[in-house]
Amino acid sequence: MAKEEQVRPEGEPVASEGVEPDAQQAGPETAAAPAGESAELQTLLTDARSKADEHWEQCLRLQAELENLRKRSERDLVQAHKFALEKFAAELLPVRDSLEMGVAAAAEDSASVAHLREGSELTLKMLTSAFEKFNVKEINPLNEKFNPEYHEAMSMQERADVEPNTVVTVVQKGYLLNDRLIRPAMVIVSRAAAQPAGGQLNEQA
User: Which residues are CB-contacts of 178 (< 8 A; sequence separation ≥ 6)?
Assistant: First the structure.
């Protein structure tokens, strides 16, 4: 027998065998979705590349600035070492001028000891002023306790009038630069006087 044909109303779409109607309707949308995602990913990739290029340029500029800073620092350091004593030398120039004037005055027949002494004192005052400007301090430990950190004993001298280890003579003054020792004071230090042998016998007697 022939199968009975199913009669459908006109205008109703015929569904394919084995395919649900909803799947047939979702087909075009499903095909459009990957295309939209691909465009979005392409946009994100382009933006990421643009930011990466921008960051790379910033990195190169920063590297160039650091290199320029390093070279400038090295140049400033060389200049600082080269001209570190420029101001100090400028302060010493008047001292030299004064010494030269003193030598020239001493060569004259009319030179007197008083004038030469006055000129020498003035020169010494100028030198002391230059030292003070650059924090150079003298060490003059006369009648002070011997300090091995700042004093160097040249000899010892028996003294009964002062306590032992007292500086009784300053042979050469010492100096500090910014509280750092640049030359110790050369000194003679006292020690206890030896008692006479006869005095010890009398005391024992």
Answer: 135
* Cα dist from 35 to 23, 26, 38, 40, whole Å: 19, 15, 5, 9
How many other CB atoms sit within 10 Å of the CB of residue 166?
20
d(CA 147, CA 124): 27
Taking only the tens place, the pLDDT of each residue in 35-77 is: 677 888 888 888 888 889 889 999 999 999 999 999 999 998 8
Residues in the chain: 205
Own/partner contacts of 141-150, CB < 8 Å, gap of 24 or more, are: 141/167, 141/170, 141/174, 141/185, 141/187, 142/167, 142/168, 142/169, 142/170, 143/167, 143/168, 146/187, 146/189, 149/181, 150/174, 150/176, 150/181, 150/184, 150/185
88-118 per-position pLDDT tens digit: 999 999 999 999 999 998 888 888 888 889 9
Task: Check residue 164 and report its DSSP letter.
Answer: T
Residue type, 47: D
- Which pTM does this prediction carry? 0.60
Distance CA 20, CA 125 (A): 114
